[in-house]
Amino acid sequence: MCARSPIALPSCVVAIEFPDGFLWGVATAAHQIEGGNWNSDWWEFEHAPSTPVVEPSGDACDSFHRYPDDIRLVKELGLGAYRFSIEWARIEPEDGFFSRSALDHYRRMLGCCHEHGVLPVVTFHHFTTPRWLAAQGGWENAATADRFARFCERAVAHLGDLIGMGCTINEPNVASTLGYLLGTFAPGKKDLGAWGRASATYIDAHRKAYQAIKAGPGDFPLGATVAMDDWWAPEGCEEKLAAVRHSYEDIFCEAARGDDYLGVQAYSRLRLDEQGLPTGPEEGVEVLDMGYEYWPRAVEVGIRRAAEVAQVPIFVTESGIGTRDDGQRIRYLTEVLEGVGRTLEDGIDVRGYFCWSLLDNFEWNHGYGPRFGIVAVDRETQARSLKPSASWLGKIARTNRLDV
Ligand code: NOJ
User: Fold this and answer.
1) Which option is the CATH number for 19-399: 3.30.70.3270, 3.40.190.10, 3.20.20.80, 3.40.50.150?
2) How far is the CA of 185 from the centre of ligand 1 (A)?
3) Is there a smaller number of Cβ atoms within 10 Å at the N or the C end of the chain?
4) 385-401 pLDDT tens trace
């Protein structure tokens, strides 16, 4: 037997076997890959004169048209699932007006996944909101929760029979914090009160959407995802840390109680100062293009915390690294998966892992700088080319094991 701490991997481990049925996939989001999402609040935000977004999304990866190639790639790599989002701004371009043709588009995408034997995992909201709804106060407006439930009801009525797994809202804690407190995401507000209102609406929207989707056709696992971090604060600031973590993470995990699962998405560590405010990376720790620390342990910490607070099965619905060095990506993902292995060994019910992302795509306010894809995209021609990490991940998925 190896003596081991919960974090350090024992030196005698040579492979991690994942449980039978463990789901391996890749994730994307509509605005980041489809292109031409001009009816959304993000498009407007990217083009505003004082925008903090370094470049607009434009044609993105043109996946709106190239999705058959992208889904074929997922299958050829040997991955079992594709997580993508349906775009509310296309499906409901005006208040109460639903586009049959947009819904049909997503129905074709779902059909394409099934043709390839790839499980389609549908996110109903991934950071973008129709312009008409943003004009009504967006997520600060409590009525947005009902609008979102109505959208989900219509979408699931058209698509539900083909959905393999569902996610109501992606990282509502990031959407509310970056959009309403830090101002780096749409709608660019920096207002403590707005942050509280937006967080409350997101939680209400998740609960209402959950009911609406469950009431529709299809019978698939449903949950939400939360952005989780490893947390650090100076000694003596434990209470501050707990308070900040509570309003940023815990309330969203608590809202997942009773759901079919909770999606954990973790990338790095969040360091706080004595005031409980985010501070920069620690000296000596590698810093990534996103400006945060190379910190693969965040996934393991996030899984443990999410499982403890939500008390539901966990999927890692996103995990990845924005880097131009694909060797660094493989190193990072290896360390992440070792951590996932430790949580499984400890009996935590983790059911799958989705790498972010399939493609080098539009990274929100950072534009096209950070490269999260296991597949590169030529920004001129849109040609896709596999990086070594793509076949590396595919092999893990096909064998359901990671050789360390
Ligand atoms: C989480 C978000 O869901 C996704 O949209 C983003 O691109 C990745 N994190 C990487 O930052």
Assistant:
1) 3.20.20.80
2) 12
3) N
4) 999 999 999 999 999 99
